[in-house]
Amino acid sequence: MRTLAYATATAAAVAVSLVLAPSAVATAPGDNGTVKIHDATTGEELRKNEPHVCTFYLDAFGFDAGQQVDWHIEAWAPTADVKGETVKTGSLTLDAEGHGRSDDLSLPDGHYKLFWNFDGENGSAKHKVFWTDCEDDTEPGATTPSGSASATPSDAVEPTSSASPGEAAPAASSSPSAQGAAGDLAETGNGAPVGILSTAAAALLATGGYLVFRRRKSASGQS
């Protein structure tokens, strides 16, 4: 009976140790906390990483009180000229709540990796990869890359024309002979009006016919 009770107690102790072991490892002194990349305009209370930033800072929380931290940032593929080249370093002491933040930092646009080393860490340093991307805003009316301002529609050269916009170009002026078609008589090659010549010809024919008639009448009266 004693043997059974002893075996039961031993099994219970082993079970409790197995249950508590992961928790003990997770809360081992010196290897707690996390670090995030934050945009300079983001509050320190945010516990979310921001992998795309311009001006930024390193935000740590949940570490042991007063821990000493050394960090460095390396240029990273695909934008690094030399992958792993250290481009920025720093250190800080965390407060009583295991929190701390770096000063605001800036780097040329590209891809980088943060390495976070601290007292009591287990294994490799904590790390984060991130991008910096500071796009320049183009102001309206800014000059083009060649240095000259882009031309506005009013700067374009308009075709030379005597007509005002929206009006048809005036038709070619008519000659005096063309204007005669609107009411004046047409002219012959010598400049005399055709109508006058026609009238004169008709009068001559009438006069000739009358003279012939008179001559025949006189001749019939004498016979």
Automatic annotation (TrEMBL):
Region (Disordered): 136-192
Transmembrane segments: 194-213
Compositional bias (Low complexity): 140-154, 161-183
Metal-binding found in the keyword field: no
Keyword Transferase attributed: no
UniProt entry keywords in alphabetical sequence: Membrane, Signal, Transmembrane, Transmembrane helix
Signal peptide per UniProt: 1-26
Superkingdom of source: Bacteria
NCBIfam families assigned: LPXTG_anchor
Name of the protein in its database record: LPXTG cell wall anchor domain-containing protein
UniProt organism field: Streptomyces himalayensis subsp. aureolus
